[in-house]
Amino acid sequence: MKLPHEHGSYKNKVDLLDENQAEKISKAMKQLGDPKRLQIFWFLCHREECVLNIAAIMDMSSPAVSHHLRILKLANLIESKRMGKEMFYKAKDNKLSKFLLETTKNAINL
C-alpha cells in the first residue's frame, strides 16, 4: 500500500484488527469497565466458585452478583456448570479471557 507520507522504510507490517475481532474485544472491555465486574472476572480467572460464595467474598447480594455474572457470560468471558443445586462459575479458557486477564495484570504494574 502506498501511504500519503513516506517516513522511511517499514520493516514490520502491522495488520489492523479485523472489524469483527475489534467489536468482540471492545464489547468485552466495556463489560470489564465496571469495577465490581472486573473484580469478579479477576477472581474467576483464578478459581471456580458458586454464586453464594462470590457474593460473600464481594460483600454483595446474590442477585447483584448474578446480574454481573450474566453480563460476563454474555460477553463470553465466563462459563457455568451446575453441581447439584448450585451453579459454579469460572473464566472461560479462551483467547479473549486470557488476553483480558493479561491486560489486567499488565495494568496493575502501571
From TrEMBL:
On the tree of life, the source organism's domain of life is Bacteria
Does the record carry Isomerase as a key word?
Answer: no
- InterPro entries the UniProt entry points to: ArsR-like_HTH, HTH_ArsR_DNA-bd_dom, Metal_resp_trans_reg, WH-like_DNA-bd_sf, WH_DNA-bd_sf
The keyword Transcription regulation appears for this protein = yes
- Annotated HTH arsR-type domain ranges read 17-110
Q: Name one GO molecular function term.
A: DNA-binding transcription factor activity
Instruction: Write down the SMART domains for this protein, in alphabetical order.
Output: HTH_ARSR
Sorted keywords for this record are: DNA-binding, Transcription, Transcription regulation
Protein name per Swiss-Prot or TrEMBL: Winged helix-turn-helix transcriptional regulator
Q: Which organism is it from?
A: Anaerococcus porci
Q: State the taxonomy lineage.
A: Bacteria, Bacillati, Bacillota, Tissierellia, Tissierellales
